[in-house]
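does this look right to u?? adenosine-5'-diphosphate version
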Amino acid sequence: MTQPLLRVENLQTHFATRAGTVKAVDGVSFDLRRGEILGLVGESGSGKSVTGQSILGLVDPPGRIAGGRVLFDGEDLVTAGEKRLRAIRGRRIAMIFQDPMMTLNPVLSVETQMVEAVLAHDKVGRAEARRRSRDALGRVGIASPEERLAAYPHQFSGGMRQRVAIAIALLHSPDLILADEPTTALDVTIQAQILFEVQTLCRDTGTALLWVTHDLAVVSALADRVAVMYAGRIVETGPIADVIQAPRHPYTRGLLDSVPSRNRRGVPLRSIPGMTPSVLDLPKGCAFQPRCGRADAACAVMPELPENGHAWRCWHPHDADARGAAA
Amino acid sequence: MIVFILRRLTQSAVVIAAMAVLVFTGIFAIGNPIDVLISPEADEVERAAAIARLGLDQPMHVQFARFVESAVGGDLGTSFVHGVPALGLVLQRFPATLELALAAMLLAVLLGIPLGLWAGLKPDSVAGRVIMTGSILGFSLPTFWVGMMLIMAFAVQLGWLPAGGRGQTASLFGVQWSFLTRDGLAHLILPAINLATFKLSLVIRLARAGTREVALQDYVKFARAKGLSPARVVGVHILKNIMIPVVTVLGLELGSVIAFSVVTESVFAWPGMGKLLIESILQLDRPVVVAYLLLTVLLFVVINLVVDLIYSMLDPRIRLGGGRA
Ligand SMILES: Nc1ncnc2c1ncn2[C@@H]1O[C@H](COP(=O)(O)OP(=O)(O)O)[C@@H](O)[C@H]1O
Ligand code: SF4
Ligand SMILES: [Mg+2]
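got this back:
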């Protein structure tokens, strides 16, 4: 068996707060092969962003990685030093954030922010760094990149800013891009365009992609595999087609039912009752209990997530064919 | 950018015009200009001559025109005490005050920004807490008391530094400066520290608050995710953002440092404008007080203008307008 590009093993990321230790990520494991696209899905607050940032060691205090391993090409990034991480950030693993209004520094020109990203890893002259930046802008579909280099972030629209961020991520042709809801803040048409472009660019360059989103519809159009997160844990994972067609975990099902395009016309939108729980006071056992229609006494014991192709963390999963019949 | 500068220049001109009207009203219309502008010791002949010369028997608008004319020409009356033009007297003291104020600001910025950055990046560290406690002290201790303590400690007890005066000066651009000689520099240190204390505390707080806010922004995390060194992240991405509020406030404060160097100048017998102002008030030397006030307002206006220009250079959103392409 070939080694995966990224193997996250039992990752634990905790925040020490006044109210207690917040286990934002509590035992997350997944693999990502070269060139593969994995969707990481879950409601807001389920720990997706913290998972992504943990991979690159970018979690700010009071957060810290309390356990587990992040094996990138066989090297554990959790125990790697800051210097080693810096050599990997931006060069082998790049990151794109949710809000393009916030990811570019407002007081630095696009050129400054791109050139410094080139120079962080390659000993090239300014002119060469500038040429590469310009080409990268052209690749993500920015017209007259030469002139746009001199512009400042506020002179770009949201969609264009996100393209700039993507261009920066692509500068060093990384092996892996961690994309944290990069289209959430954009309107639907631009979202679709960017989705398509990122997919094409990743396929062309063989870049693996961890696509974080709360929107299963986005993932189903894009990803090879999906992992569904709830309260800091993965509750279901598998090839995208299997999970979409036959979701086994009640939470995944709820997520799917709340995607409008998947509802029959005239049938009211069913969303999951209740709210995302505070990670501070989760019930004993399965975290989804208070919101789950299938919960019973057995659920007071935490169900395990088996290591299968399509796996779920539930004592009473839905049947494989139940979804089509019920809808 | 040019439009921006023109707009600001126009605004400054309006402020100066408004100020001229105010001062004119203050001296000529409300008060009795004869009392303000002519020495009480002058005899009847001198009085009559002065009234004629100043045109105080003329209608108001003519008087205003004359006032503006003489003010623009730099004539703000003659010091009762020194018998020389008041404006010249104040201007002569100006370099000393400017030197002291700039030295204080330089201290405040050069120490305050690194300390504030540190305290902002590591708010829970021992150093961070010590810095913040220090800045609270700097805020709350009265300037004259700190000044006297400095003299007690470094001049009287330790004898390291002189307690007062400008020391030896040297000439640059035809003006005498203390910082050019060793002796002058030694004289400058204590008053500069004294005047800087409050501003230093202010800069530390501004830089710290800015750093704490900016450090949490996505663009800082994005900068780190690009693989940039901490020096570049802090020294460029964070620093450039916190400089915007720091420069704004500091610019405004430079005016107040000049205006409020009065206390420090008195404590350290520093022969600047502030000390002159106190002396003139005590001696009822009104033309000098008027000249001091006008000059200070003018300074404020000029400084504000410069600050706005620097501010716009730091923040492209202002320099280039809010439009999107
Ligand atoms: N700075 C922080 N301090 C305390 N808790 C935090 C902090 N950042 C994140 N968390 C916790 O981590 C949980 C997961 O956050 P996040 O990964 O951002 O969720 P998602 O990206 O899935 O919306 C949050 O619900 C919160 O409880
Ligand atoms: S384990 Fe129980 S509570 Fe949890 S999702 Fe499955 S049925 Fe619901
Ligand atoms: Mg998130």
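Strands of chain B lie at 170-172, 175-177. idk if thats expected tbh
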